Amino acid sequence: MSVQPVPATIGSTPADVAADMAALTRQLRMLGNQAMRLAADVAARDAAEADRAAFDAYGNDSDAWLVVAQDIYRERQRRRDFFDGDLFGEPAWDILLDLYICDRQGKRVSVTAACLGAGVPETTALRWLKQLEKNGLLLREADRRDGRRCFVRLSELGYAKMTAYLQANRPAPARPVPLALAA
């Protein structure tokens, strides 16, 4: 759609000019909407390509990445022994690591446990859980036996991205530790 020029005629009434401006405004709004749809399509295509790379990591998934994730999580927790915990606030990362580890070990994680694992006030952890869920990295599941409790776990995308990150940024241990010993 192209923008049509507003005809400027001598003797146009204010009502004519207002109608022409309204028509031009509608055309501009439609062009803006088309541009937004195109931008959303491009962003979705780019995101799909990035997610595809993360899902490729599934093929190389092994217990070695559990050990790597546990090492990273322990290192992060150990810092609190030497420094004020507020200096290293990254609750989203701690939540993702904790959920990845628990997923690999077959453990369910309650919302309360995820908050504790983040090492921040509960309200802060809840905000991060909500943000991670909004980004499609984790899922909430109601407890069928206790309606007051919910569990959280990594979504497929969250698990794939964590695995891809661990593979890309840390070498696998030379000899993977058996799952029973890794805890």
Q: What can you tell me about this protein's structure?
A:
The longest helix has 43 residues, at 14-56. The mean pLDDT is 79. By secondary structure, the chain is mostly helical. It is elongated and about 80 Å long. The chain has helices at 14-56, 63-82, 91-105, 111-118, 122-134, 156-169, 179-182, and strands at residues 109-110, 138-142, 150-154. The protein is built from 7 helices and 3 strands.
Helix percentage range: 55-70%
Mean pLDDT: 79
- Order of strands, main sheet, comes to 1-3-2
Work out the strand percent. Answer: 5-15%
Rg measurement, Å: 26 Å
Shape: elongated
Please give the largest β-sheet.
3 strands, antiparallel
Spans where pLDDT lies below 50 across 5 or more residues: none
Number of helices: 7
Total number of beta strands: 3
H and E order: HHHEHHEEHH
SS content category: mainly alpha
Give the CA-CA distance, first to last residue.
62 Å
Briefly say what this structure is.
This protein has seven helices and three strands, in the order H-H-H-E-H-H-E-E-H-H. With 183 residues, it is mainly alpha-helical. The radius of gyration is 26 Å and the shape is elongated.
Write the layout of secondary structure elements.
Blueprint: H1 14-56, H2 63-82, H3 91-105, E1 109-110, H4 111-118, H5 122-134, E2 138-142, E3 150-154, H6 156-169, H7 179-182
Antiparallel strand pairs: 1-3, 2-3
Helix pairs in contact: 1-6, 2-3, 3-4, 4-5
